[in-house]
Amino acid sequence: MSLDIVILAAGQGTRMRSALPKVLHPIAGKSMLGHVINTARQLKPQGIHVVIGHGAERVREQLAADDLNFVLQTEQLGTGHAVAQALPALTAERVLILYGDVPLIEIGTLERLLQRVSEQQLGLLTVNLNDPTGYGRIVRDGSGVVNAIVEHKDATAEQRLISEGNTGILAVPGKRLSDWLGRLSNSNAQGEYYLTDVIAMAVADGLVVATEQAADEMEVLGANDRIQLAQLERHYQYRAARCLMVQGVTLSDPARFDLRGEVTVGRDVTIDINVILEGCVIIEDGVQIGPNCVIKNSTLRTGAIIKANSHLEGAEVGEGADCGPFARLRPGSVLGAKAHVGNFVELKNATLGEGAKAGHLSYLGDAEIGARTNIGAGTITCNYDGANKFKTVLGEDVFIGSNSALVAPVTLGDRATTGAGSVITGDVPANTLAVGRAKQRNIEGWKRPVKIKK
Ligand code: UD1
Ligand code: CA
Question: Is the CB–ligand 1 distance for residue 196 below 6 Å?
Fold first, then answer.
Protein backbone atom coordinates (compact mmCIF):
# COMPACT_ATOMS: atom_id res chain seq x y z
CA MET A 1 0.00 0.00 0.00
CA SER A 2 1.27 3.43 -0.92
CA LEU A 3 2.26 5.87 1.79
CA ASP A 4 2.36 9.64 2.32
CA ILE A 5 4.04 11.03 5.42
CA VAL A 6 3.07 14.37 6.97
CA ILE A 7 5.49 15.90 9.46
CA LEU A 8 4.09 18.68 11.65
CA ALA A 9 6.71 21.34 12.26
CA ALA A 10 4.89 24.66 12.36
CA GLY A 11 4.80 25.27 16.10
CA GLN A 12 6.76 28.06 17.75
CA GLY A 13 8.41 26.34 20.68
CA THR A 14 8.16 29.33 23.01
CA ARG A 15 9.74 27.43 25.89
CA MET A 16 12.99 26.95 23.98
CA ARG A 17 13.50 30.73 24.39
CA SER A 18 15.42 30.78 21.16
CA ALA A 19 15.76 32.67 17.91
CA LEU A 20 16.12 29.28 16.25
CA PRO A 21 12.87 27.53 15.22
CA LYS A 22 12.25 24.66 17.63
CA VAL A 23 12.56 21.85 15.07
CA LEU A 24 16.01 23.09 14.05
CA HIS A 25 17.47 22.54 17.51
CA PRO A 26 19.98 19.73 17.21
CA ILE A 27 20.17 16.27 18.69
CA ALA A 28 23.57 14.67 18.10
CA GLY A 29 24.57 17.53 15.82
CA LYS A 30 21.56 17.22 13.52
CA SER A 31 18.25 19.10 13.69
CA MET A 32 15.35 17.28 15.31
CA LEU A 33 13.40 17.68 12.09
CA GLY A 34 16.36 16.25 10.17
CA HIS A 35 16.20 13.10 12.29
CA VAL A 36 12.47 12.72 11.64
CA ILE A 37 12.94 13.23 7.91
CA ASN A 38 15.67 10.59 7.92
CA THR A 39 13.41 8.08 9.61
CA ALA A 40 10.54 8.98 7.27
CA ARG A 41 12.76 8.33 4.24
CA GLN A 42 13.53 4.82 5.44
CA LEU A 43 9.83 3.98 5.08
CA LYS A 44 10.12 4.77 1.35
CA PRO A 45 6.94 6.85 1.12
CA GLN A 46 5.73 8.35 -2.15
CA GLY A 47 5.74 11.77 -0.52
CA ILE A 48 7.09 13.54 2.58
CA HIS A 49 5.11 16.68 3.41
CA VAL A 50 6.56 19.00 6.01
CA VAL A 51 4.10 21.49 7.50
CA ILE A 52 6.03 24.63 8.45
CA GLY A 53 4.98 27.93 10.03
CA HIS A 54 7.16 29.58 12.65
CA GLY A 55 10.58 30.23 11.12
CA ALA A 56 9.33 28.65 7.89
CA GLU A 57 11.98 30.20 5.68
CA ARG A 58 14.85 29.07 7.87
CA VAL A 59 13.48 25.57 8.14
CA ARG A 60 12.98 25.33 4.38
CA GLU A 61 16.44 26.72 3.71
CA GLN A 62 18.21 24.36 6.06
CA LEU A 63 16.44 21.17 5.05
CA ALA A 64 15.53 21.70 1.39
CA ALA A 65 15.76 18.47 -0.60
CA ASP A 66 14.18 17.19 -3.79
CA ASP A 67 12.04 14.63 -2.01
CA LEU A 68 10.46 17.09 0.45
CA ASN A 69 7.24 19.00 -0.07
CA PHE A 70 7.07 21.99 2.27
CA VAL A 71 3.57 23.17 3.11
CA LEU A 72 3.04 26.52 4.80
CA GLN A 73 0.59 26.79 7.69
CA THR A 74 0.35 30.55 8.10
CA GLU A 75 -1.61 30.42 11.37
CA GLN A 76 -1.24 27.63 13.92
CA LEU A 77 -4.87 26.70 14.48
CA GLY A 78 -4.24 23.18 15.73
CA THR A 79 -2.84 19.81 14.70
CA GLY A 80 -5.93 18.95 12.61
CA HIS A 81 -5.66 22.26 10.78
CA ALA A 82 -1.95 21.60 10.22
CA VAL A 83 -2.55 18.24 8.53
CA ALA A 84 -5.37 19.80 6.49
CA GLN A 85 -2.84 22.16 4.88
CA ALA A 86 -1.12 19.18 3.32
CA LEU A 87 -4.35 17.54 2.07
CA PRO A 88 -4.15 18.73 -1.56
CA ALA A 89 -0.84 16.90 -1.91
CA LEU A 90 -1.92 13.62 -0.27
CA THR A 91 -2.79 10.85 -2.72
CA ALA A 92 -1.49 7.64 -1.10
CA GLU A 93 -3.58 4.84 0.40
CA ARG A 94 -2.06 5.43 3.83
CA VAL A 95 -1.08 8.66 5.57
CA LEU A 96 1.33 8.65 8.50
CA ILE A 97 1.52 11.69 10.81
CA LEU A 98 4.86 12.46 12.49
CA TYR A 99 6.20 15.45 14.45
CA GLY A 100 9.29 17.53 13.81
CA ASP A 101 9.96 17.80 17.54
CA VAL A 102 9.69 14.07 18.30
CA PRO A 103 13.07 13.02 16.92
CA LEU A 104 13.76 9.60 18.41
CA ILE A 105 10.85 7.69 16.93
CA GLU A 106 12.16 4.39 15.60
CA ILE A 107 11.62 2.83 12.25
CA GLY A 108 10.54 -0.54 13.71
CA THR A 109 7.76 1.06 15.72
CA LEU A 110 6.45 2.90 12.67
CA GLU A 111 6.55 -0.26 10.57
CA ARG A 112 4.47 -2.06 13.19
CA LEU A 113 1.99 0.81 13.22
CA LEU A 114 1.69 0.92 9.43
CA GLN A 115 0.91 -2.79 9.31
CA ARG A 116 -2.26 -2.06 11.25
CA VAL A 117 -3.72 0.31 8.65
CA SER A 118 -6.34 -0.80 6.14
CA GLU A 119 -9.43 0.76 4.58
CA GLN A 120 -11.36 -0.32 7.66
CA GLN A 121 -8.74 0.34 10.30
CA LEU A 122 -6.37 3.00 11.48
CA GLY A 123 -3.25 2.69 13.61
CA LEU A 124 -2.68 4.80 16.70
CA LEU A 125 0.57 4.91 18.68
CA THR A 126 -0.04 5.22 22.41
CA VAL A 127 2.19 5.26 25.46
CA ASN A 128 1.60 4.36 29.08
CA LEU A 129 2.79 7.15 31.31
CA ASN A 130 3.42 7.53 35.02
CA ASP A 131 2.40 11.14 34.68
CA PRO A 132 0.14 11.68 31.66
CA THR A 133 -0.48 15.37 32.46
CA GLY A 134 -0.84 17.37 29.25
CA TYR A 135 -1.35 14.35 27.02
CA GLY A 136 -4.53 13.43 25.20
CA ARG A 137 -6.06 10.37 26.90
CA ILE A 138 -7.05 7.22 25.07
CA VAL A 139 -10.68 6.51 25.97
CA ARG A 140 -11.65 2.84 25.70
CA ASP A 141 -15.03 1.21 26.34
CA GLY A 142 -15.64 -1.64 28.78
CA SER A 143 -14.28 -4.21 26.35
CA GLY A 144 -11.13 -2.21 25.65
CA VAL A 145 -12.19 -0.82 22.28
CA VAL A 146 -10.85 2.68 21.58
CA ASN A 147 -13.67 5.24 21.25
CA ALA A 148 -11.96 8.59 21.29
CA ILE A 149 -9.05 10.74 22.38
CA VAL A 150 -9.82 13.46 24.89
CA GLU A 151 -7.32 16.27 25.29
CA HIS A 152 -6.06 16.87 28.83
CA LYS A 153 -7.66 20.31 28.98
CA ASP A 154 -11.03 18.93 27.86
CA ALA A 155 -10.93 15.79 30.02
CA THR A 156 -13.12 15.09 33.03
CA ALA A 157 -11.49 14.29 36.37
CA GLU A 158 -12.22 10.64 35.73
CA GLN A 159 -10.69 10.70 32.23
CA ARG A 160 -7.57 12.34 33.63
CA LEU A 161 -6.94 9.16 35.62
CA ILE A 162 -6.33 7.28 32.36
CA SER A 163 -2.60 6.60 32.08
CA GLU A 164 -2.61 5.66 28.39
CA GLY A 165 -1.58 8.78 26.49
CA ASN A 166 -1.73 9.77 22.84
CA THR A 167 1.69 10.09 21.24
CA GLY A 168 0.12 12.05 18.38
CA ILE A 169 1.59 9.61 15.87
CA LEU A 170 -1.05 7.88 13.81
CA ALA A 171 -1.54 6.21 10.46
CA VAL A 172 -4.85 6.44 8.65
CA PRO A 173 -6.43 5.31 5.38
CA GLY A 174 -5.83 8.23 3.02
CA LYS A 175 -9.25 8.19 1.39
CA ARG A 176 -11.06 9.13 4.57
CA LEU A 177 -8.81 11.91 5.74
CA SER A 178 -10.22 14.89 3.86
CA ASP A 179 -13.75 14.06 4.98
CA TRP A 180 -12.72 13.80 8.63
CA LEU A 181 -10.54 16.90 8.64
CA GLY A 182 -13.29 18.86 6.90
CA ARG A 183 -15.65 18.10 9.74
CA LEU A 184 -13.35 19.17 12.61
CA SER A 185 -14.58 21.94 14.86
CA ASN A 186 -12.65 24.16 17.23
CA SER A 187 -15.24 24.35 19.98
CA ASN A 188 -13.02 22.94 22.71
CA ALA A 189 -10.96 24.17 25.65
CA GLN A 190 -8.11 25.42 23.43
CA GLY A 191 -10.17 26.71 20.48
CA GLU A 192 -8.07 24.52 18.16
CA TYR A 193 -8.82 22.07 15.37
CA TYR A 194 -7.68 18.86 17.03
CA LEU A 195 -6.30 16.08 14.87
CA THR A 196 -7.26 13.77 17.73
CA ASP A 197 -10.98 14.29 17.04
CA VAL A 198 -10.48 12.19 13.92
CA ILE A 199 -10.49 9.10 16.16
CA ALA A 200 -14.08 9.49 17.32
CA MET A 201 -15.14 10.22 13.71
CA ALA A 202 -13.45 7.06 12.49
CA VAL A 203 -15.20 5.03 15.16
CA ALA A 204 -18.55 6.59 14.19
CA ASP A 205 -17.82 5.62 10.57
CA GLY A 206 -17.36 2.01 11.69
CA LEU A 207 -13.56 1.84 11.50
CA VAL A 208 -11.49 0.01 14.06
CA VAL A 209 -8.78 1.89 15.96
CA ALA A 210 -5.79 -0.45 16.37
CA THR A 211 -3.21 0.66 18.90
CA GLU A 212 0.50 0.01 19.08
CA GLN A 213 2.77 0.87 21.96
CA ALA A 214 6.13 2.56 21.63
CA ALA A 215 9.01 0.48 23.02
CA ASP A 216 9.94 3.21 25.45
CA GLU A 217 8.72 6.62 26.46
CA MET A 218 11.79 8.45 25.12
CA GLU A 219 10.95 7.32 21.61
CA VAL A 220 7.77 9.39 21.57
CA LEU A 221 8.92 12.26 23.77
CA GLY A 222 8.86 15.71 22.24
CA ALA A 223 11.32 18.44 23.13
CA ASN A 224 9.48 21.52 24.30
CA ASP A 225 12.33 23.07 26.26
CA ARG A 226 16.08 22.68 26.56
CA ILE A 227 15.76 20.34 29.51
CA GLN A 228 13.81 17.86 27.40
CA LEU A 229 16.22 18.49 24.53
CA ALA A 230 19.11 17.43 26.76
CA GLN A 231 17.19 14.34 27.91
CA LEU A 232 16.63 13.31 24.31
CA GLU A 233 20.28 13.97 23.50
CA ARG A 234 21.41 11.71 26.35
CA HIS A 235 19.00 9.01 25.32
CA TYR A 236 20.18 9.19 21.72
CA GLN A 237 23.79 8.88 22.91
CA TYR A 238 22.94 6.01 25.22
CA ARG A 239 21.39 4.20 22.24
CA ALA A 240 24.43 4.95 20.05
CA ALA A 241 26.83 3.75 22.75
CA ARG A 242 24.87 0.53 23.28
CA CYS A 243 24.84 -0.14 19.57
CA LEU A 244 28.65 0.16 19.43
CA MET A 245 29.17 -2.07 22.46
CA VAL A 246 26.94 -4.70 20.88
CA GLN A 247 29.27 -4.54 17.85
CA GLY A 248 32.31 -5.30 20.01
CA VAL A 249 33.57 -1.86 21.01
CA THR A 250 34.81 -1.25 24.55
CA LEU A 251 33.65 2.12 25.85
CA SER A 252 35.32 3.18 29.09
CA ASP A 253 32.13 5.00 30.01
CA PRO A 254 29.10 4.90 27.71
CA ALA A 255 27.79 8.03 29.46
CA ARG A 256 30.84 9.96 28.32
CA PHE A 257 30.75 9.23 24.62
CA ASP A 258 29.15 11.27 21.86
CA LEU A 259 28.35 10.33 18.30
CA ARG A 260 27.33 13.16 15.98
CA GLY A 261 27.13 11.36 12.70
CA GLU A 262 27.79 7.84 11.46
CA VAL A 263 30.50 5.46 12.53
CA THR A 264 31.47 2.02 11.29
CA VAL A 265 33.59 -0.07 13.63
CA GLY A 266 35.72 -3.19 13.47
CA ARG A 267 36.36 -5.59 16.35
CA ASP A 268 38.17 -4.87 19.62
CA VAL A 269 38.12 -1.13 19.32
CA THR A 270 38.56 0.70 22.62
CA ILE A 271 37.34 4.22 23.21
CA ASP A 272 38.25 6.09 26.36
CA ILE A 273 36.12 8.80 27.97
CA ASN A 274 34.92 12.07 26.42
CA VAL A 275 35.47 11.11 22.82
CA ILE A 276 33.35 12.86 20.18
CA LEU A 277 32.92 11.23 16.78
CA GLU A 278 31.50 13.51 14.11
CA GLY A 279 30.40 13.21 10.50
CA CYS A 280 31.48 9.96 8.88
CA VAL A 281 34.08 8.03 10.85
CA ILE A 282 35.54 4.63 9.97
CA ILE A 283 37.32 2.72 12.71
CA GLU A 284 38.97 -0.59 11.85
CA ASP A 285 39.92 -3.52 14.11
CA GLY A 286 41.93 -2.98 17.24
CA VAL A 287 42.01 0.82 17.14
CA GLN A 288 42.55 2.56 20.48
CA ILE A 289 41.26 6.06 21.07
CA GLY A 290 42.43 7.89 24.18
CA PRO A 291 40.41 10.32 26.27
CA ASN A 292 39.16 13.73 25.08
CA CYS A 293 39.62 13.19 21.35
CA VAL A 294 37.48 14.79 18.65
CA ILE A 295 37.45 12.75 15.45
CA LYS A 296 35.57 14.08 12.45
CA ASN A 297 35.20 12.60 8.96
CA SER A 298 38.27 10.42 9.41
CA THR A 299 39.45 6.87 8.84
CA LEU A 300 41.49 4.98 11.42
CA ARG A 301 43.13 1.87 10.00
CA THR A 302 43.72 -1.39 11.83
CA GLY A 303 45.63 -1.01 15.06
CA ALA A 304 45.94 2.77 14.90
CA ILE A 305 46.37 4.53 18.24
CA ILE A 306 44.99 8.01 18.88
CA LYS A 307 46.35 9.34 22.15
CA ALA A 308 44.64 11.73 24.54
CA ASN A 309 43.39 15.16 23.48
CA SER A 310 43.95 14.76 19.77
CA HIS A 311 41.80 16.53 17.19
CA LEU A 312 41.33 14.92 13.79
CA GLU A 313 39.34 16.18 10.85
CA GLY A 314 39.39 14.76 7.34
CA ALA A 315 42.35 12.60 8.28
CA GLU A 316 43.49 9.05 7.68
CA VAL A 317 45.66 7.26 10.21
CA GLY A 318 47.37 4.21 8.72
CA GLU A 319 47.75 0.68 10.05
CA GLY A 320 49.57 0.68 13.35
CA ALA A 321 50.26 4.41 13.12
CA ASP A 322 49.85 6.62 16.14
CA CYS A 323 49.29 10.25 16.95
CA GLY A 324 49.09 12.45 20.02
CA PRO A 325 48.75 13.23 22.79
CA PHE A 326 47.67 16.69 21.60
CA ALA A 327 48.02 16.06 17.88
CA ARG A 328 46.02 18.05 15.37
CA LEU A 329 45.36 16.43 12.01
CA ARG A 330 43.54 18.81 9.69
CA PRO A 331 41.87 17.92 6.38
CA GLY A 332 44.09 16.02 3.98
CA SER A 333 46.37 14.58 6.65
CA VAL A 334 47.40 11.02 5.82
CA LEU A 335 49.63 8.97 8.09
CA GLY A 336 51.10 5.90 6.42
CA ALA A 337 51.42 2.56 8.19
CA LYS A 338 53.37 2.80 11.46
CA ALA A 339 53.89 6.54 11.03
CA HIS A 340 54.18 8.53 14.24
CA VAL A 341 52.97 12.01 15.09
CA GLY A 342 53.66 13.24 18.59
CA ASN A 343 52.54 16.08 20.80
CA PHE A 344 51.74 19.55 19.49
CA VAL A 345 52.17 18.60 15.87
CA GLU A 346 49.76 20.08 13.34
CA LEU A 347 49.31 18.57 9.89
CA LYS A 348 47.29 19.96 7.03
CA ASN A 349 47.13 18.45 3.57
CA ALA A 350 50.23 16.46 4.42
CA THR A 351 51.20 12.85 3.81
CA LEU A 352 53.60 10.95 6.03
CA GLY A 353 55.04 7.82 4.40
CA GLU A 354 55.34 4.46 6.12
CA GLY A 355 57.24 4.74 9.40
CA ALA A 356 57.84 8.49 9.04
CA LYS A 357 57.99 10.45 12.30
CA ALA A 358 57.20 13.95 13.50
CA GLY A 359 57.57 13.64 17.22
CA HIS A 360 57.18 17.12 18.63
CA LEU A 361 56.01 20.69 18.04
CA SER A 362 55.76 20.98 14.25
CA TYR A 363 53.60 22.45 11.53
CA LEU A 364 53.55 20.38 8.35
CA GLY A 365 51.27 21.84 5.67
CA ASP A 366 51.03 20.99 1.97
CA ALA A 367 53.79 18.43 2.42
CA GLU A 368 54.67 15.05 1.02
CA ILE A 369 56.99 13.22 3.35
CA GLY A 370 58.68 9.96 2.35
CA ALA A 371 58.93 6.68 4.25
CA ARG A 372 61.07 6.61 7.42
CA THR A 373 61.82 10.32 7.20
CA ASN A 374 62.32 11.97 10.59
CA ILE A 375 61.10 15.48 11.29
CA GLY A 376 62.94 17.13 14.18
CA ALA A 377 61.19 19.07 16.90
CA GLY A 378 60.06 22.56 15.95
CA THR A 379 60.17 22.01 12.20
CA ILE A 380 57.89 24.30 10.22
CA THR A 381 56.89 24.13 6.58
CA CYS A 382 56.60 27.73 5.39
CA ASN A 383 53.89 26.91 2.87
CA TYR A 384 52.15 30.28 2.58
CA ASP A 385 53.47 33.61 1.34
CA GLY A 386 50.35 35.50 2.30
CA ALA A 387 48.70 34.87 -1.05
CA ASN A 388 49.67 31.46 -2.36
CA LYS A 389 50.37 28.02 -0.97
CA PHE A 390 53.39 25.97 -1.94
CA LYS A 391 54.43 22.40 -1.51
CA THR A 392 57.24 20.78 0.44
CA VAL A 393 58.43 17.40 -0.82
CA LEU A 394 60.76 15.26 1.27
CA GLY A 395 62.14 11.95 -0.01
CA GLU A 396 62.66 8.75 1.95
CA ASP A 397 64.96 8.49 4.99
CA VAL A 398 65.38 12.26 5.13
CA PHE A 399 66.50 13.70 8.47
CA ILE A 400 65.27 17.21 9.26
CA GLY A 401 67.24 18.79 12.09
CA SER A 402 65.29 20.42 14.90
CA ASN A 403 63.85 23.86 14.35
CA SER A 404 64.29 23.82 10.60
CA ALA A 405 62.16 26.12 8.48
CA LEU A 406 61.42 24.58 5.08
CA VAL A 407 60.50 27.44 2.76
CA ALA A 408 58.21 26.04 0.07
CA PRO A 409 58.27 25.31 -2.76
CA VAL A 410 61.17 23.10 -1.83
CA THR A 411 62.24 19.51 -2.48
CA LEU A 412 64.73 17.39 -0.53
CA GLY A 413 66.02 14.17 -2.05
CA ASP A 414 66.24 10.76 -0.36
CA ARG A 415 68.57 10.62 2.66
CA ALA A 416 69.09 14.41 2.64
CA THR A 417 69.84 15.97 6.04
CA THR A 418 69.34 19.51 7.35
CA GLY A 419 71.29 20.98 10.24
CA ALA A 420 69.30 22.11 13.26
CA GLY A 421 68.02 25.66 13.01
CA SER A 422 68.37 25.80 9.23
CA VAL A 423 66.21 27.92 6.96
CA ILE A 424 66.04 25.83 3.82
CA THR A 425 65.15 27.96 0.83
CA GLY A 426 66.57 25.84 -1.96
CA ASP A 427 66.26 22.20 -3.01
CA VAL A 428 68.65 19.71 -1.43
CA PRO A 429 69.90 16.79 -3.52
CA ALA A 430 69.83 13.20 -2.23
CA ASN A 431 72.50 12.12 0.29
CA THR A 432 73.43 15.75 1.04
CA LEU A 433 73.66 17.81 4.22
CA ALA A 434 72.23 21.31 4.03
CA VAL A 435 73.11 23.84 6.69
CA GLY A 436 71.33 27.15 6.39
CA ARG A 437 72.20 29.09 9.51
CA ALA A 438 74.66 31.71 10.66
CA LYS A 439 77.99 30.29 11.69
CA GLN A 440 78.68 30.37 15.42
CA ARG A 441 81.13 32.98 16.69
CA ASN A 442 82.71 32.83 20.15
CA ILE A 443 83.66 36.20 21.68
CA GLU A 444 86.34 35.80 24.31
CA GLY A 445 86.42 37.95 27.44
CA TRP A 446 83.01 39.38 26.75
CA LYS A 447 81.55 41.27 29.72
CA ARG A 448 77.92 40.92 30.63
CA PRO A 449 76.04 44.18 31.16
CA VAL A 450 75.57 45.11 34.84
CA LYS A 451 72.71 46.98 36.50
CA ILE A 452 73.38 50.69 37.14
CA LYS A 453 73.17 51.41 40.90
CA LYS A 454 70.98 54.42 41.84
C1 UD1 B 1 -0.82 16.80 20.97
C2 UD1 B 1 -2.05 15.93 20.93
C3 UD1 B 1 -2.15 15.14 22.23
C4 UD1 B 1 -0.91 14.34 22.47
C5 UD1 B 1 0.32 15.25 22.44
C6 UD1 B 1 1.60 14.47 22.50
C7 UD1 B 1 -3.66 17.12 19.55
C8 UD1 B 1 -4.86 17.97 19.56
N9 UD1 B 1 -3.19 16.77 20.74
O10 UD1 B 1 -1.03 17.74 21.99
O11 UD1 B 1 -3.28 14.30 22.20
O12 UD1 B 1 -0.95 13.67 23.70
O13 UD1 B 1 0.34 16.01 21.19
O14 UD1 B 1 2.67 15.33 22.62
O15 UD1 B 1 -3.17 16.78 18.51
N16 UD1 B 1 1.55 21.86 15.33
C17 UD1 B 1 1.53 22.46 14.10
N18 UD1 B 1 0.53 23.32 13.80
C19 UD1 B 1 -0.47 23.61 14.67
C20 UD1 B 1 -0.44 22.98 15.92
C21 UD1 B 1 0.57 22.11 16.24
O22 UD1 B 1 2.42 22.24 13.28
O23 UD1 B 1 -1.36 24.40 14.31
C24 UD1 B 1 2.64 20.94 15.67
C25 UD1 B 1 3.49 21.51 16.79
O26 UD1 B 1 4.61 22.20 16.27
C27 UD1 B 1 3.92 20.29 17.55
C28 UD1 B 1 2.81 19.29 17.29
O29 UD1 B 1 2.10 19.75 16.17
O30 UD1 B 1 5.10 19.74 17.03
C31 UD1 B 1 1.92 19.08 18.50
O32 UD1 B 1 1.24 20.28 18.77
P33 UD1 B 1 0.93 20.74 20.24
O34 UD1 B 1 0.10 21.95 20.17
O35 UD1 B 1 2.18 20.80 21.04
O36 UD1 B 1 0.03 19.53 20.74
P37 UD1 B 1 -0.14 19.06 22.21
O38 UD1 B 1 -0.93 20.06 22.93
O39 UD1 B 1 1.16 18.68 22.79
CA1 CA C 1 3.14 19.58 22.79
Answer: yes
Confidence of residue 205 (pLDDT cuts 50, 70, 90): very high
Residue 201's SS3 state is helix
The residues spanned by each domain of the chain are 3-220, 248-434
Please tell me the pTM assigned to this model: 0.93
| Range 100-109 average pLDDT | 97
25 is catalytic: no
Asked whether the predicted pLDDT for residue 215 surpasses 90, the reply is: no
118-126: average pLDDT = 98
In residues, how long is the chain?
A: 454
Q: Is 166 in the pocket of ligand 1 (CB under 6 A)?
A: yes
153-181 in b/e form (b: 16+ CB < 10 A) is eebeeebeebebbbbbbbbbbbebbeebb
Query: Quick check: CB of 135 below 6 Å from ligand 1?
Result: yes
Å from CA of 154 to ligand 2 middle: 15
Spell 341-354 as b/e; 16+ CB within 10 A means b: bbbbbbbbbbbbbb
CA 117, distance to chain mean position in Å, is 33
Alpha-carbon distance values, 51 to 80, 99, 103, 167, 354 (Å): 12, 9, 16, 18, 54
Q: Whose CA is nearest to atom 35 of ligand 1?
A: 11
Query: pLDDT for 15-38, tens place per residue?
Result: 999 999 999 999 999 999 999 999
Atom of ligand 1 nearest to the CA of 10: 22
CA-nearest residue, atom 37 of ligand 1: 135
Query: H or E stretch including 240?
Result: helix 226-246
* CATH fold for domain 248-434: UDP N-Acetylglucosamine Acyltransferase; domain 1 (2.160.10)
In this structure, whether the domain defined by 3-220 belongs to CATH 3.90.550.10 is answered with yes
Per-residue model confidence (pLDDT) at position 454:
86
The residues near 88 (Cβ < 8 Å, ≥ 6 apart) are none
How far is the C-alpha of 200 from the C-alpha of 131, rounded, in Å? 24
Q: Which pLDDT does position 79 carry in this prediction?
A: 98
Query: Which residues have C-beta within 8 Å of that of residue 372, sequence separation ≥ 6?
Result: 353, 354, 355, 356, 396, 397
- In whole angstroms, give the CA distance from residue 439 to residue 301: 45
Give the model confidence (pLDDT) of 264-315 as tens digits: 999 999 999 999 999 999 999 999 999 999 999 999 999 999 999 999 999 9
Q: Give the DSSP H or E segment for 60.
A: helix 56-63
**pLDDT reading at 259 higher than 90:** yes
